[in-house]
Write a structure and sequence with these properties.
single chain, about 300 residues, alpha+beta, Pseudouridine synthase, eleven-stranded mixed sheet, four-stranded antiparallel sheet, 6 helices, 22 strands
């Protein structure tokens, strides 16, 4: 099913609904179910009303932040498979760790590739960086270890690599779609930190048709218990079906998409993340994983 997200001709401050009549029948730009921009719309075909806010920042022409390969010492030790980061802090404080021949006892020290890191006299080797993309199915909990969970996402990627990888962010048990795994702590922090406001696109299926006024309200902002939240873009996926919604949101608040619709009296029957930070589930079946390409990794690091 084609997603009718449309690109506004020009970014404007505030919020607005794009009038159908203003859209020329010769076609428009859209975001499909993989979150990719596609061109083309047959003349005369009904068009959904589209909302889009002013973006957080116009990145065109902006300088990319330098990506550092340095890593905190406790994370380096954890990535080497010795222990957890919390336990590593205790070993560091106890004077059991040396970096380039010098005993380190203070917290927050960073090491870089080529540094000689030794724990209790044994040299440690950092694991290579691994980046795995999963198309998450329902009924799997996004956690590395939960004794109360019947199934976790780690079961789906256990054969992906020998390195210890972790999910970047989380998806609810019943939410499906794009989920990234890595052992690259710096990148993980960057992608999940609220200040970076990474783009996420969801396909939502509701228990009833979305009221037009409610769509405008979601566009303008909904007041939740933890503050106001507004979608960055929202539209019907198909003009004929008002229960299927495409929503773009950059917030990383817990269960934010579900809470928006629940606040307005809707029940979310299905929630599928089709886009995360430039990654899509295109050609990736549900429950399957793949390694990111070098180009994809570079793109994530340069955002």
């Amino acid at each position: 099913m084609r997603n009718n997200f449309s690109k506004n001709n020009k970014s404007r401050a505030g919020t607005r609904i794009q009038d159908k009549k203003a859209v020329k029948s010769r076609g428009k730009t859209a975001i499909n179910q993989t979150g990719e921009k596609t061109a083309g719309s047959s003349p005369g075909k009904p068009k959904s009303k589209i909302y889009k806010t002013k973006t957080h920042a116009d990145r065109k022409g902006s300088k990319s932040r330098e990506y550092s390969d340095e890593v905190r010492l406790n994370r380096f030790i954890a990535n080497a498979g010795v222990c957890s980061r919390r336990e590593a802090d205790k070993y560091i404080a106890a004077g059991l760790v040396k970096v380039n021949g010098e005993t380190v006892t203070e917290m927050g020290v960073k090491v870089k590739p080529g540094d000689d890191v030794r724990f209790d006299g044994r040299r440690l080797n950092a694991e290579k960086k691994v980046y795995i993309l999963l198309n998450k199915p329902k009924d799997y909990v996004t956690t590395t270890d939960d004794p109360h969970a019947e199934r976790t996402v780690m079961e789906l990627v256990k054969e992906a690599c020998p390195e210890r990888i972790y999910p970047v962010g989380r998806l609810d048990r019943n939410t499906t779609g794009v989920l990234l795994f890595t052992n690259d702590g710096d990148l993980s922090k960057k992608l999940t930190h609220p200040s970076h406001k990474m783009k996420k696109v969801y396909q939502v299926t509701l228990n009833k048709a979305l009221n037009k006024n409610h769509m405008v309200q979601i566009a303008d902002g909904v007041e939740l218990e933890d503050g106001t939240i507004a979608a960055n873009a929202i539209s019907f996926i198909s003009p004929e079906n008002k229960t299927e919604i495409g929503i773009e949101i950059h917030s990383g608040r817990n269960r934010i998409v579900r809470r928006i619709f629940e606040h307005l009296g809707y029940h979310v029957k299905k929630l599928d993340r089709v886009y995360f930070a430039g990654l899509t589930k295109k050609n990736l079946p549900r429950g399957k994983w793949r390694a990111l390409s070098g180009k994809e990794i570079q793109f994530l690091k340069m955002q």
